[in-house]
Amino acid sequence: MEIKRVCALYFSATGNTEKTVATFAETLAEQLGVPWERLPFTKPAERERDYVFADTDLVVVGTPTYAGKLPNKILPDLKAHLHGNGALAAAIVTFGNRSYDNALAELCAVLEGDGFHTVAGGAFVGRHAFTDKLAEDRPDWDDRKELKNFATATADKVKNLTENPAPVTVPGDPEAPYYIPKGADGEPAKFLKAKPRTDPAKCTNCGACARLCPMGAIDPKDVYSVPGTCIKCQACVRKCTKHAKYFDDAAFLSHVAMLEQTFTEPKKNEVFL
User: Fold this and answer.
1) For each successive 10 residues of the chain (273 residues), what is the average pLDDT?
2) Residue 94 phi/psi, 5° resolution?
3) Contact 183, 259 (CB under 8 A)
4) Residue 221 confidence (pLDDT)
5) From the CB of residue 29, how many other CB atoms can be counted at a distance below 10 Å?
6) Do 236 and 244 meet the contact criterion of CB atoms below 8 Å apart?
7) Which tens digit of pLDDT belongs to each residue from 67-118?
8) What pLDDT is recorded for position 1?
9) Are 24 and 145 in contact (CB under 8 A)?
10) How far is the C-alpha of 20 from the C-alpha of 61, rounded, in Å?
11) Distance from chain centroid for Cα 248
12) Under 8 Å CB-to-CB from 146, ≥6 apart: which residues?
């Protein structure tokens, strides 16, 4: 099959998914001898327009895993604004050293439903958004090596295709329910309404948190106010250069403590062709 372009489209609130998808897409393009381009799908304005592809495109689509599936507030945008038109696609999900559960299966199903032909799928570990104690330095050198090897194998598969491939087989159930977060006591931790707080001793009112929030949830005129929907992505916490943003919700902190206690053993990446 003739591929003329590789595209890297990603939702990446804290940057890990972007790094993973970009490494894979760049190597894939090198192996195929074609140009590649980034298509950020993170900020609200980036998710409002349509992305129309052709059957000569190979699109790498990446998202983080939220509660074992795709971020539920981003899922409608993926379904509404991606138009494959017969393009090949590689599905990539990242996860913070707990599990990717059903996220990869869901992403593959969404892409097939959007008119893509999935040719590869992968789940890669990255630093957990909630804590530095889980996979702090990942993706690391070994992860990048795995990504590049996976991209090379994907390119070889594409080069040998004479017709559209059958959907790639990955583990999981795209219709499965979301993982229920648990606290340190083992009971369900309910923190859907938790929102970031602001330390007045550190905040300089630069407005970066409002500009970087993927949901546009923070009031740019008053960064202490979060009137919109917070998906706990940690973009404001991770990207505030003054370290002024934080979460103090008891259920959220209990869930973080459980993760830190339970999932310290480094997880492996998984790839499927």
Assistant:
1) 96 97 98 98 97 98 98 98 98 98 98 98 98 96 98 98 96 97 97 97 96 97 97 97 97 98 97 98
2) -115, 155
3) no
4) 96
5) 22
6) no
7) 999 999 999 999 999 999 999 999 999 999 999 999 999 999 999 999 999 9
8) 84
9) no
10) 11
11) 24
12) 124, 269, 271
Calpha distance 218→212 (Å, rounded) = 9
Shortest CA distance to 238 belongs to which of 136, 92, 143, 93? Answer: 136
Amino acid at site 33: G
Three-state SS across the chain? CCCCEEEEEECCCCCHHHHHHHHHHHHHHHHHCCCEEEEECCCHHHHCCCEECCCCEEEEEEEECECCECCCCCHHHHHHHEECCCCEEEEEEEECCCCCCCHHHHHHHHHHHCCCEEEEEEEEECCCCCCCCCCCCCCCHHHHHHHHHHHHHHHHHHHCCCCCCCCCCCCCCCCCCCCCCECCCCCECCCCCCCCEECCCCCCCCCHHHHHCCCCCCCCCCCCCCCCCCCCCCHHHHHCCCCCEECCCHHHHHHHHHHHHHCCCCCCCEEEC
CA 15 vs CA 40, 147, 270: distances in Å: 11, 16, 20
At residue 244, what is the residue type? A
Residue type, 48: E
| C-beta of residue 164 within 8 angstroms of C-beta of residue 86 | yes
β-bridge partners, 58? 6, 88
Burial class (CB in 10 A: 0-12, 13-18, 19+), 144: middle
What does the alpha-carbon distance between residue 111 and residue 84 come to, in Å, rounded to a whole number?
8
